[in-house]
Amino acid sequence: MRRRYLALHVDSAESFGSSELMNAVWNAVMKLYGEYGASQTGLRFISYDPQERFGIVRVGHRNVDMVRASLASITNIEGRPATVHVLRVSGTIKALRKKTGL
Amino acid sequence: MKRIYTDLHLCANLNNLEQASRLIDKAAQLGYSAVAIPMPKNVDVHTQNLRTICKDLAVDFVTRVDLRPRNPDELLRDLRKCRRRFEIIAVLCDSKPVARQAAKDRRVDLLDFPQIDFRRRFFDLAEAELASQSLACLEIDAGRLLTLEGADRIRLLSSLRREVATAADFHVPIIVSSGVSDPLLVRKPMELAALSTLFGPTGKLALDAVSANPSSIITRNREKLGSKFVAPGIRLVREGKDC
Fold this sequence. Notes:
The complex is a heterodimer.
Chain A: E1 3-11, H1 18-41, E2 44-49, E3 54-60, H2 64-72, E4 76-77, E5 80-81, E6 83-90, H3 93-100
Antiparallel strand pairs in A: 1-3, 1-6, 2-3, 4-5
Helix pairs in contact in A: 1-2
Chain B: E1 6-7, H1 17-29, E2 34-39, H2 45-56, E3 60-67, H3 72-82, E4 88-92, H4 96-104, E5 110-112, H5 125-133, E6 137-141, H6 143-147, H7 150-169, E7 174-177, H8 189-196, H9 203-208, H10 212-225, E8 229-231, E9 234-235
Protein backbone atom coordinates (compact mmCIF):
# COMPACT_ATOMS: atom_id res chain seq x y z
CA MET A 1 0.00 0.00 0.00
CA ARG A 2 1.33 3.43 -0.92
CA ARG A 3 1.53 5.87 1.95
CA ARG A 4 1.35 9.58 2.46
CA TYR A 5 2.95 11.60 5.22
CA LEU A 6 1.09 14.64 6.52
CA ALA A 7 2.83 17.51 8.29
CA LEU A 8 0.52 18.92 10.96
CA HIS A 9 0.53 22.18 12.82
CA VAL A 10 -1.48 22.69 16.00
CA ASP A 11 -2.92 26.20 16.20
CA SER A 12 -3.80 27.08 19.79
CA ALA A 13 -2.91 29.40 22.64
CA GLU A 14 -2.37 26.30 24.82
CA SER A 15 0.31 23.64 24.53
CA PHE A 16 -0.40 19.92 24.22
CA GLY A 17 1.50 16.70 24.59
CA SER A 18 1.76 14.14 21.83
CA SER A 19 -0.66 11.73 23.54
CA GLU A 20 -3.30 14.47 23.84
CA LEU A 21 -2.96 15.29 20.12
CA MET A 22 -3.02 11.61 19.21
CA ASN A 23 -6.24 11.05 21.20
CA ALA A 24 -7.86 14.11 19.61
CA VAL A 25 -7.01 12.93 16.09
CA TRP A 26 -8.23 9.37 16.71
CA ASN A 27 -11.43 10.66 18.32
CA ALA A 28 -12.07 12.96 15.34
CA VAL A 29 -11.55 10.12 12.84
CA MET A 30 -13.82 7.80 14.83
CA LYS A 31 -16.51 10.45 15.26
CA LEU A 32 -16.68 11.08 11.52
CA TYR A 33 -16.06 7.62 10.08
CA GLY A 34 -16.52 5.17 12.95
CA GLU A 35 -14.18 2.35 13.92
CA TYR A 36 -14.53 0.66 10.52
CA GLY A 37 -13.57 3.85 8.68
CA ALA A 38 -10.75 4.58 11.10
CA SER A 39 -9.33 1.12 10.48
CA GLN A 40 -9.17 1.86 6.75
CA THR A 41 -7.18 5.08 7.07
CA GLY A 42 -3.92 3.37 8.08
CA LEU A 43 -3.35 6.29 10.43
CA ARG A 44 -0.15 6.19 12.46
CA PHE A 45 1.67 8.82 14.46
CA ILE A 46 5.27 9.35 13.47
CA SER A 47 6.34 12.30 15.61
CA TYR A 48 5.17 15.44 17.40
CA ASP A 49 7.22 18.34 18.67
CA PRO A 50 5.26 20.20 21.40
CA GLN A 51 7.61 23.22 21.25
CA GLU A 52 7.22 23.73 17.51
CA ARG A 53 3.65 22.32 17.56
CA PHE A 54 4.61 20.37 14.49
CA GLY A 55 3.70 16.75 13.95
CA ILE A 56 3.87 14.06 11.29
CA VAL A 57 1.30 11.32 10.68
CA ARG A 58 1.22 8.56 8.11
CA VAL A 59 -1.93 7.52 6.22
CA GLY A 60 -2.83 5.34 3.26
CA HIS A 61 -2.70 7.32 -0.01
CA ARG A 62 -6.39 6.70 -0.73
CA ASN A 63 -7.44 8.06 2.66
CA VAL A 64 -5.74 11.44 2.74
CA ASP A 65 -9.05 13.28 2.34
CA MET A 66 -10.66 11.25 5.14
CA VAL A 67 -7.90 12.17 7.55
CA ARG A 68 -7.78 15.76 6.33
CA ALA A 69 -11.55 16.12 6.95
CA SER A 70 -11.18 14.55 10.40
CA LEU A 71 -8.31 16.89 11.30
CA ALA A 72 -10.36 19.86 10.07
CA SER A 73 -13.23 18.83 12.34
CA ILE A 74 -11.07 19.19 15.47
CA THR A 75 -12.11 22.31 17.38
CA ASN A 76 -10.61 21.47 20.77
CA ILE A 77 -8.05 19.18 22.34
CA GLU A 78 -8.88 17.95 25.85
CA GLY A 79 -11.55 20.67 26.08
CA ARG A 80 -9.15 23.50 25.19
CA PRO A 81 -9.71 25.40 21.92
CA ALA A 82 -7.35 24.23 19.19
CA THR A 83 -7.17 23.62 15.47
CA VAL A 84 -5.02 21.20 13.53
CA HIS A 85 -3.94 22.28 10.05
CA VAL A 86 -2.26 20.13 7.43
CA LEU A 87 0.84 21.98 6.22
CA ARG A 88 2.08 19.60 3.52
CA VAL A 89 1.50 16.12 2.18
CA SER A 90 4.36 14.04 0.85
CA GLY A 91 5.26 10.50 -0.16
CA THR A 92 8.32 10.26 2.08
CA ILE A 93 9.27 11.67 5.47
CA LYS A 94 12.52 12.97 4.02
CA ALA A 95 10.75 14.98 1.33
CA LEU A 96 8.19 16.21 3.86
CA ARG A 97 10.89 17.52 6.19
CA LYS A 98 12.65 19.14 3.25
CA LYS A 99 9.44 20.81 2.01
CA THR A 100 8.41 22.11 5.42
CA GLY A 101 11.94 23.08 6.42
CA LEU A 102 11.73 21.22 9.75
CA MET B 1 -3.17 27.04 -13.61
CA LYS B 2 -2.95 27.93 -9.93
CA ARG B 3 -6.28 28.00 -8.16
CA ILE B 4 -7.48 31.18 -6.48
CA TYR B 5 -9.28 30.35 -3.25
CA THR B 6 -12.17 32.45 -2.02
CA ASP B 7 -14.15 32.41 1.21
CA LEU B 8 -17.49 34.03 0.49
CA HIS B 9 -18.78 33.99 4.07
CA LEU B 10 -16.65 35.32 6.89
CA CYS B 11 -18.96 36.52 9.65
CA ALA B 12 -16.94 39.45 10.99
CA ASN B 13 -18.31 41.62 13.76
CA LEU B 14 -18.50 44.98 12.04
CA ASN B 15 -18.55 46.88 15.35
CA ASN B 16 -15.25 45.31 16.36
CA LEU B 17 -12.70 46.02 13.66
CA GLU B 18 -9.92 44.34 15.63
CA GLN B 19 -11.81 41.05 15.58
CA ALA B 20 -12.61 41.53 11.90
CA SER B 21 -8.94 42.18 11.22
CA ARG B 22 -7.89 38.99 13.06
CA LEU B 23 -10.45 36.98 11.10
CA ILE B 24 -9.31 38.34 7.74
CA ASP B 25 -5.66 37.90 8.75
CA LYS B 26 -6.31 34.25 9.58
CA ALA B 27 -8.05 33.73 6.23
CA ALA B 28 -5.10 35.33 4.44
CA GLN B 29 -2.60 33.14 6.35
CA LEU B 30 -4.55 30.03 5.42
CA GLY B 31 -4.35 30.78 1.72
CA TYR B 32 -7.49 32.69 0.72
CA SER B 33 -6.98 35.34 -1.95
CA ALA B 34 -10.43 36.87 -1.59
CA VAL B 35 -12.94 37.11 1.25
CA ALA B 36 -16.53 38.29 1.41
CA ILE B 37 -18.01 39.73 4.59
CA PRO B 38 -21.77 40.25 4.92
CA MET B 39 -22.67 43.91 5.36
CA PRO B 40 -25.90 45.48 6.57
CA LYS B 41 -28.06 46.38 3.58
CA ASN B 42 -28.67 49.99 4.65
CA VAL B 43 -25.28 51.02 6.00
CA ASP B 44 -22.11 51.54 3.99
CA VAL B 45 -19.83 52.96 6.70
CA HIS B 46 -17.90 49.73 7.32
CA THR B 47 -17.00 49.05 3.71
CA GLN B 48 -14.05 51.44 3.54
CA ASN B 49 -12.56 50.21 6.84
CA LEU B 50 -12.78 46.58 5.78
CA ARG B 51 -11.40 47.39 2.35
CA THR B 52 -8.38 49.05 4.01
CA ILE B 53 -7.81 46.06 6.31
CA CYS B 54 -7.98 43.67 3.35
CA LYS B 55 -5.66 45.84 1.28
CA ASP B 56 -3.07 45.83 4.09
CA LEU B 57 -3.30 42.03 4.28
CA ALA B 58 -3.17 41.64 0.47
CA VAL B 59 -6.60 40.03 0.29
CA ASP B 60 -9.27 40.93 -2.23
CA PHE B 61 -12.33 42.29 -0.39
CA VAL B 62 -15.73 41.36 -1.81
CA THR B 63 -18.87 43.17 -0.64
CA ARG B 64 -21.76 40.91 0.26
CA VAL B 65 -25.24 41.36 1.64
CA ASP B 66 -27.38 38.68 3.25
CA LEU B 67 -31.05 39.28 2.59
CA ARG B 68 -33.63 37.68 4.85
CA PRO B 69 -36.97 38.67 3.34
CA ARG B 70 -40.28 37.56 4.86
CA ASN B 71 -42.04 37.27 1.50
CA PRO B 72 -41.26 37.40 -2.25
CA ASP B 73 -42.35 41.05 -2.54
CA GLU B 74 -39.89 42.10 0.13
CA LEU B 75 -37.19 40.12 -1.66
CA LEU B 76 -37.88 41.95 -4.93
CA ARG B 77 -37.78 45.31 -3.15
CA ASP B 78 -34.46 44.44 -1.45
CA LEU B 79 -32.96 43.21 -4.72
CA ARG B 80 -33.88 46.46 -6.46
CA LYS B 81 -32.16 48.42 -3.68
CA CYS B 82 -29.08 46.25 -3.23
CA ARG B 83 -28.12 44.74 -6.58
CA ARG B 84 -26.12 47.73 -7.78
CA ARG B 85 -24.40 48.22 -4.40
CA PHE B 86 -23.06 44.77 -3.53
CA GLU B 87 -20.93 42.28 -5.43
CA ILE B 88 -22.56 39.24 -3.84
CA ILE B 89 -26.21 38.87 -2.88
CA ALA B 90 -27.15 35.92 -0.69
CA VAL B 91 -30.73 35.14 0.26
CA LEU B 92 -31.53 33.23 3.41
CA CYS B 93 -34.63 31.32 2.38
CA ASP B 94 -36.84 31.01 5.45
CA SER B 95 -40.00 30.12 3.55
CA LYS B 96 -40.83 28.21 0.39
CA PRO B 97 -42.24 31.21 -1.57
CA VAL B 98 -39.06 33.19 -0.83
CA ALA B 99 -36.90 30.21 -1.81
CA ARG B 100 -38.72 29.82 -5.14
CA GLN B 101 -38.52 33.53 -5.94
CA ALA B 102 -34.82 33.65 -5.02
CA ALA B 103 -34.05 30.60 -7.15
CA LYS B 104 -35.61 32.03 -10.29
CA ASP B 105 -34.32 35.61 -9.92
CA ARG B 106 -31.11 36.20 -11.89
CA ARG B 107 -30.02 38.92 -9.44
CA VAL B 108 -29.55 36.37 -6.64
CA ASP B 109 -26.08 34.81 -6.36
CA LEU B 110 -26.33 32.51 -3.37
CA LEU B 111 -29.14 30.47 -1.88
CA ASP B 112 -28.80 29.89 1.86
CA PHE B 113 -31.03 27.74 4.00
CA PRO B 114 -31.38 27.47 7.79
CA GLN B 115 -28.60 25.21 9.00
CA ILE B 116 -30.34 23.50 11.89
CA ASP B 117 -34.02 23.80 11.05
CA PHE B 118 -34.14 20.86 8.62
CA ARG B 119 -37.83 21.31 7.81
CA ARG B 120 -37.06 24.68 6.30
CA ARG B 121 -34.33 23.52 3.95
CA PHE B 122 -36.28 23.92 0.74
CA PHE B 123 -33.63 22.89 -1.78
CA ASP B 124 -35.66 20.20 -3.54
CA LEU B 125 -36.07 19.21 -7.20
CA ALA B 126 -38.29 22.19 -8.09
CA GLU B 127 -35.90 24.63 -6.38
CA ALA B 128 -32.89 23.11 -8.17
CA GLU B 129 -34.65 23.29 -11.54
CA LEU B 130 -35.42 26.98 -11.04
CA ALA B 131 -31.88 27.68 -9.84
CA SER B 132 -30.42 25.88 -12.86
CA GLN B 133 -32.23 28.30 -15.17
CA SER B 134 -30.95 31.36 -13.32
CA LEU B 135 -27.51 32.13 -11.89
CA ALA B 136 -28.03 31.13 -8.26
CA CYS B 137 -25.62 28.78 -6.48
CA LEU B 138 -26.23 26.69 -3.40
CA GLU B 139 -24.09 27.91 -0.50
CA ILE B 140 -23.02 25.54 2.26
CA ASP B 141 -21.42 26.84 5.44
CA ALA B 142 -18.86 24.40 6.77
CA GLY B 143 -18.81 26.14 10.14
CA ARG B 144 -21.89 24.26 11.28
CA LEU B 145 -20.21 20.94 10.55
CA LEU B 146 -17.50 21.92 13.00
CA THR B 147 -19.73 23.16 15.80
CA LEU B 148 -22.50 20.57 15.66
CA GLU B 149 -22.03 17.13 17.14
CA GLY B 150 -23.82 13.81 17.31
CA ALA B 151 -27.36 13.51 15.96
CA ASP B 152 -27.54 17.13 14.76
CA ARG B 153 -24.41 16.74 12.65
CA ILE B 154 -25.66 13.43 11.27
CA ARG B 155 -28.95 15.04 10.22
CA LEU B 156 -27.17 18.01 8.69
CA LEU B 157 -24.82 15.76 6.70
CA SER B 158 -27.73 13.65 5.51
CA SER B 159 -29.67 16.73 4.44
CA LEU B 160 -26.62 18.26 2.70
CA ARG B 161 -25.89 15.00 0.88
CA ARG B 162 -29.43 14.97 -0.54
CA GLU B 163 -29.28 18.64 -1.56
CA VAL B 164 -25.85 18.34 -3.17
CA ALA B 165 -27.00 15.32 -5.19
CA THR B 166 -30.06 17.30 -6.35
CA ALA B 167 -27.87 20.28 -7.23
CA ALA B 168 -25.52 18.05 -9.22
CA ASP B 169 -28.45 16.56 -11.18
CA PHE B 170 -29.48 20.06 -12.29
CA HIS B 171 -25.93 21.43 -12.68
CA VAL B 172 -26.42 24.01 -9.94
CA PRO B 173 -22.96 25.11 -8.73
CA ILE B 174 -22.10 24.61 -5.07
CA ILE B 175 -20.15 27.06 -2.95
CA VAL B 176 -18.55 25.90 0.29
CA SER B 177 -17.80 28.76 2.70
CA SER B 178 -16.63 29.04 6.29
CA GLY B 179 -19.58 30.90 7.81
CA VAL B 180 -17.70 31.46 11.07
CA SER B 181 -16.80 34.43 13.24
CA ASP B 182 -14.07 32.78 15.33
CA PRO B 183 -10.59 32.77 13.71
CA LEU B 184 -9.93 29.32 15.22
CA LEU B 185 -12.80 27.91 13.15
CA VAL B 186 -11.48 29.15 9.80
CA ARG B 187 -10.17 26.23 7.76
CA LYS B 188 -7.77 26.03 4.82
CA PRO B 189 -9.36 25.74 1.37
CA MET B 190 -8.08 22.16 1.03
CA GLU B 191 -9.60 21.34 4.41
CA LEU B 192 -12.97 22.78 3.36
CA ALA B 193 -12.73 20.69 0.20
CA ALA B 194 -11.96 17.61 2.31
CA LEU B 195 -14.92 18.40 4.61
CA SER B 196 -17.19 18.72 1.59
CA THR B 197 -16.37 15.11 0.64
CA LEU B 198 -18.50 14.20 3.67
CA PHE B 199 -21.64 15.24 1.81
CA GLY B 200 -20.84 14.62 -1.83
CA PRO B 201 -18.38 16.43 -4.05
CA THR B 202 -14.93 14.88 -4.30
CA GLY B 203 -11.69 15.78 -6.06
CA LYS B 204 -12.00 18.55 -8.62
CA LEU B 205 -15.66 19.31 -7.81
CA ALA B 206 -14.81 19.82 -4.14
CA LEU B 207 -11.96 22.18 -5.00
CA ASP B 208 -14.16 24.08 -7.48
CA ALA B 209 -16.60 24.75 -4.62
CA VAL B 210 -13.93 26.85 -2.85
CA SER B 211 -12.18 28.29 -5.88
CA ALA B 212 -13.64 28.31 -9.40
CA ASN B 213 -17.32 28.66 -8.47
CA PRO B 214 -17.01 31.63 -6.09
CA SER B 215 -14.42 33.29 -8.34
CA SER B 216 -16.72 33.08 -11.35
CA ILE B 217 -19.54 34.83 -9.41
CA ILE B 218 -17.19 37.64 -8.37
CA THR B 219 -15.84 38.10 -11.90
CA ARG B 220 -19.32 38.09 -13.41
CA ASN B 221 -20.74 40.57 -10.93
CA ARG B 222 -17.76 42.93 -11.06
CA GLU B 223 -18.12 43.06 -14.81
CA LYS B 224 -21.83 43.84 -14.45
CA LEU B 225 -21.19 46.53 -11.84
CA GLY B 226 -18.48 48.12 -13.99
CA SER B 227 -19.23 51.31 -15.88
CA LYS B 228 -18.61 49.66 -19.27
CA PHE B 229 -21.23 46.95 -18.89
CA VAL B 230 -24.32 47.36 -21.07
CA ALA B 231 -25.95 43.92 -21.14
CA PRO B 232 -24.70 40.31 -20.95
CA GLY B 233 -22.19 40.00 -23.82
CA ILE B 234 -22.26 43.73 -24.62
CA ARG B 235 -19.61 46.09 -23.28
CA LEU B 236 -18.77 49.67 -24.01
CA VAL B 237 -15.41 49.54 -25.78
CA ARG B 238 -14.98 53.16 -26.78
CA GLU B 239 -16.98 56.37 -26.62
CA GLY B 240 -16.50 59.79 -28.13
CA LYS B 241 -17.21 61.77 -31.24
CA ASP B 242 -15.39 59.42 -33.61
CA CYS B 243 -17.56 56.39 -32.71
